Batch of 4 targets.
Target 1
Amino acid sequence: MALRNYILPFTLGVAAGVLVSKNWPKIREVTRPLLRGVMKSGSGLLEKGREAYHEQSEKFSDLVAEIREEEEARGKGASAPPTEPKPA
């Protein structure tokens, strides 16, 4: 019973391999331009992703620098929040 479950897929795999090997030049001729187009568009998307990453990284670095400046200013007491006098 278990052997039957493997015979059909194996036979189909061998048949597909034979068909592909005999028709490989035609397949390559047809798929090469398609593959090049896919790779070009993928390359463009990759470049856009890199640009977006670097832009966000720069914004994050700027934000961290601003926070550090504020913390240093508070540490020096330069921009300490004003205190309200307590009622007597």
Note: The mean pLDDT is 87.
Target 2
Amino acid sequence: MPHGASFDLDFHSVPANSSEEPLEKHYVASRSRSQKGILVFLARDAEQRLLRYANAGVIKAEQATEILRFVQFWNKHTGHLPTELVFDSQLTTYESHSKLNQQGISFITLRRRSQKMLGAIYSQPASAWRRINLPALTRIYRTPKVLDQRVTLNGYDGELRQMTVMELGHEEPTVLLTNHLKMGPVELVTRYAQRMLIENGISEAVQFFHIDALSSMVGMKVDFDMQLTLMASSLYRLMAQRIGREYTNAQAKKLFRNLLDLSGKVEIGSDSVVVALDKRAHNPYLVASGLHEHATPMPWFGNKKLIIQFA
């Protein structure tokens, strides 16, 4: 699949159900507490809607610089740096922000709010704010107010653009930090809002691919489990694009339920394995995709070929 240029980044804590392993404690959102577990760094291709990278077993001492390791990995394996990275305020430090900027990588993130900062925001005159129209959001929060400023922060070399957004459905203002100096406020707010999709991707990995049900806490097996998750996610996305139409952006759960969770008859011959699928309402999508038109070699099964047939 082609590579996108923009990535959504996040951490996910896989809880350990054993107290025997010498693991660090991390905050587990689903349980609203910190407990022993494995910290996993995930990068999602914002254009292809696909998990591209995962690194399991990140320790707290390396958490802030994991974003730089991802950049190095991506540059090594693709020959170019990511164009844009989008992440929340907990992911890394301002020192790492500065290093990203020095490499020419654009980023959008949140700034942690403090009472002093909020006081400075609320004291701004009404003339400093402007209304914008967000066409992609619900009618209630379509016209928030924004305050566009330049700020300097400890650890960051140079100026950052700080955009404060009010009346977006939250009691407190949303404060965005970016080195995008020319991007319009509508595009900036909309792009960060799209970052929430990585949380949907993580939720899918937890619920459908069972990322929290690791086969072992041993480092090598954790990495193996994560690799299988990335491969499965990629294969489902490839299938969704091959099916097309209503399934182009479907989640893996829907693809499995509608198209793959089928019954049928299997006949094993001397040189082939023939799978005759029973009738089902969604089978025409599979027929139209042409996935059954070519036999699939199975070198691990005596060099037999897999043949799909429809009743």
Note: The longest strand covers residues 33-45.
Target 3
Amino acid sequence: MVRRVSTKKTMEKQYFGTDGIRGRVGKFPITPDFMLRLGWAVGRVLARANHGKVLIGKDTRVSGYMLESVLEAGLIAAGVDCVLLGPMPTPAVAYLTRELDACAGIVISASHNPYYDNGIKFFSNEGKKLANDIELAIEEVLENSHETEVIIPLGKASRLDDAAEQYINFCRKTVTPSLQLSNYKIALDCANGANYHIAPKLLRELGANVVTIGTEPNGRNINTDCGSTHPVPLQAFVKQEQADFGIAFDGDGDRVIMVDHLGEVVDGDEILFILTKHLHAQQRLVGGVVGTVMTNFGFERAMQELDIDFVRTNVGDKYVMQELAARNWQLGGETSGHIICLDKTTTGDGLISALQVIQAVVDSAKSLHELKQGMNKFPQVLCNVNLQKKVNDAQLQRFSSLANDAEKDLSGGGRIVLRPSGTEPVLRVMVEGENQQQVQEIATQLANDVAAITNH
């Protein structure tokens, strides 16, 4: 069994989390003055030495206009050129950063969060998430510079008008040139986010009959009762339109979940299973597959049956990516739908992942519902325990003891995972097993016991 009990964070970093900087707009650090300083610091660390350019993309949040302006000003003050991309999916910025030989890429987005949150994600010139030492270097400049110094010569700003078309052309190259979708009706939910103008265009160019929801962003409706975190509207829409399947992205387009023609959700674990099985059958799978501690136990069982290596990491695409790189493997992902296909691109990409599933559907001449067969998902219950104060080492030991005792009741047919949230003061209790009622009872009892210890 795999169990992780950890409250460790990157203590030496003050601003950067597991995926950039994120928070409530108007509250530090998501404020205009901090973002001005951040742009300047990024320019000094990432681009000034190379006299290069930095790309800036954003999702559809209304606050993106404000944050884009001040980041641009900070970068220009640091003597760095800016290229504005407009609303673009996060993975599109990663692609364009390396394609256009930029020093860095910046995405203004809070991913699947509500519109009143926002954040900043960064990519290196290779289109990959920033290394830890680079994030530390940026923070050091922020801490040691109390004003935004103007560097001469100043940078300039320009706009890349064909950014969307360049990204669409790249996505098309990740599937076979002969892929033709004229026989398919696809329901699409773009979460009123960054994919609203890209995914429908691409799928229509491939010949599909595309019907859409979540493609009318107004700055405040991103992720609101739509997208990959709220699949119920898409489930109903697929059945209403009698579509062959549905696709839902999150606000910045790095996650995807799907819905089969029966209206059943196909989550990230099932998408990963379909892609793994398809590549394995074609003898194109390099190495094994990487999941996280939250990946359903049914996926692990399915990999055992296919004789494919499978390893787990902590939650976060950053950790999945690190494990893939360390093992020189190509495929990994999370239950949330953050799928990484390193043979196609350098980061998690919802649209490219969806295209690979579509390729599997067409190649096999099977429905999405048929393709997900072979992975029997175990019942899984997740409870959140609010933390009123910091957890100490003695409490962690008691948590581990409780988890060990509770896991014995699963008789080797399940898992228990305790992990802290990376974005809020809660401890997540996940129990997985073969019997739904037993799993629910264990999860509830364990959550109550943890709460009693934590908040005593």
Note: DSSP finds 14 helices and 18 strands in the chain.
Target 4
Amino acid sequence: MLDIQLIRDNPDKVKDGVQKKGYDPKVVDRVLELDKKRRGLLQEVEKVRQERNEVAKKKDVKLGQQVKEELKKLEADLSKATKDFEQTIYDIPNLPFDDVPVGKDESANKVLRKWGKPKKFDFKVRDHIEIGERLGIIDLKTAAKVSGTRFSYLKGDAALLEFALVKLAFDTLVKKGFTPVVPPTMIRPDVFTKMARLGKNDKDDRYHLPKDDLYLVGSAEHTLGPLHMDETIPEGKLPIRYAGFSTSFRREAGSYGKDTKGILRVHQFDKVEMESFTVPEDSTKEQELIVSIQEDLMQQLGIPYQVIDISTGDMGAPNVKQIDIEAWMPGQGKYRETHTSDLMTDYQARRLNTRVRRKDGSTEFVHMNDATALAIGRTIIAILENNQQKDGSVVIPEVLRPYMGKDKISPK
């Protein structure tokens, strides 16, 4: 959430940022109203508490009972006002940096740079579905019978390719100082809310287990981010960087009719995710480092891509800046998103109460970044489509061959 003092001091600036994100700026006025009410009730509660203490000294039982009842009512009012305030301030998104492209949707996104040239084929290009089915390594029909639409079986070399990609990601990230983690795939609703990933725009996309009141995570960062919840980290220990592998679950609400075939947009998928905690002055530099790691992984795999500066209306609510990478996918004849890098500054840390203790003894909230290292399914699509051969085989990227023990996936 935003710092309430920022909202009090700069309401017009906050409204401008909220509007750029595509949210109703009236929420800022509502927060200020609730803040004023909450602070007024807090003063009344403190006044009556002082009165209660004075009455107790006089041992006036009748007056003491009256004050007690008054205090009980005021404390209940304060509790409700505080809850209303917290719920409403959570509706205010993070404010985008000034250099973020302004626009209502992805049409305002800006291409920052490109790497690699899309390969020209001398045969009819196949998409990953046809390639995978011909090779017997992607089974969508059986998955549909067993689990329904938007599920798949990865078999044989596709399964080996998944674990080769996971190992490549971990090997690369460990060398960069990331600690490998296999985090929980379920999360409590209160913690999910603190991560700013269970808002009004997110709930329909989440899988909820009512009996246990738990949610399935939509990405490993959802349970990596709370690793230091309610902690104060000594400045000398930052940055802290984690690489997490997790199966992720999304309903894909709102995507009706989009990418219904294949493994691009599915309900269950695996990812290696990056999460980092830094001092505030280093968080922008940290995002730049993270994007450079993402590009390094794509270049190791030899996949052409473009780097995108995401617009205010297309970015996530907690983000101040979002950078995406889109891989060239010959089967679709266009670039598709495979990586996201989210800089949240202290927006999540403020909810999670994750702080840094400076060398002078002062404390402040840390800044947080999260980002995709490799989205396994989408990376497999890019590998199959970019490396397909005329005879139906697929050449394995050189960097993955030691993990796979072969240089080609061939029809049987």
Note: The chain has a mean pLDDT of 95.
